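Build the 3D complex.
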Amino acid sequence: DSGVTQTPKHLITATGQRVTLRCSPRSGDLSVYWYQQSLDQGLQFLIQYYNGEERAKGNILERFSAQQFPDLHSELNLSSLELGDSALYFCASSPSWTPQGVNSGNTIYFGEGSWLTVV
Amino acid sequence: GDSVTQMEGPVTLSEEAFLTINCTYTATGYPSLFWYVQYPGEGLQLLLKATKADDKGSNKGFEATYRKETTSFHLEKGSVQVSDSAVYFCALSAGGSQGNLIFGKGTKLSVKP
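Done.
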């Protein structure tokens, strides 16, 4: 058990709908990350928050958005869903945020993921 | 940009065989290197890590050495078990705007009794 909690574990929804995935980081971790795992794209970084502020953005679609709340939990909102959005969405957390080019050995711990199926 | 390349799978071994999964990286700085494992139907678990050149990470009988001269971080285990069947991901920590982790495509390992 990594200490990162994600809900729901499984979700089936129709095209065009909107869903919200929730993540509680490990106790004491300030950074939250969202990753998408799909068969064709592999593991892709979506977005990172540190202590409530967006710190890094990856391949996140405009239809997707995220936020980190004052209690440090995070939500990933996926809207206007398409069949291709079906994937396993991981949340991860770490104690800190590493600036570019700095090797801090910062370890990122992953939750068990939320399986999203769009039909 | 920074990237990770790991050997294509699937890899099928018999129990007690020796395992090597190759991983090489490209990075402008000096990243930390990680192996994560994903067991069937589960999330990603950190298997081991190394934060500087010549460091050896080890866990559950798995080892990997950070080789700066060959930009490699190959995963090895002397005697695999059926329970090691999983997908293994090599990753590097890039920091900053790259979200800290860049993953390889994963290598699926199947161990037969």
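The mean pLDDT of chain A is 90.
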